Amino acid sequence: MSSNSNHHNGAASVVAMLQGCLYGMVAAILSGILNEDPWNKSTPLQKGIIASALLFGATFGCLFAGLLSD
To answer: What distance in Å separates the CA atoms of residue 66 and residue 9, rounded to the nearest whole number?
Structure first.
């Protein structure tokens, strides 16, 4: 029974690690995109809304991931 539990803990750790890497990659891409020419005419409010949409999506996903996994 404990080896099965260790397997699940290891799998959960790997999934969390991959999710963190993907989130970091998306944040880096977003910061690069906001410095491009089409976004230079945007107001700080517009850039803030775009950047915070990433955090809102992550929060929304975390809140409902638990419900879906049960």
So the answer is: 16
CB 54 within 8 A of CB 27: yes
The DSSP secondary structure of 34-68, one letter per residue, reads: TTSGGGTTS-HHHHHHHHHHHHHHHHHHHHHHHHH
pLDDT digits (tens, 9 = 90+) for 11-29: 888 888 888 888 888 878 8
Whether pTM > 0.70 for this model: the answer is: no
The 10 Å Cβ neighbour count of residue 22 is: 10
Question: Cα Rg for the chain, rounded, in angstroms?
Answer: 17
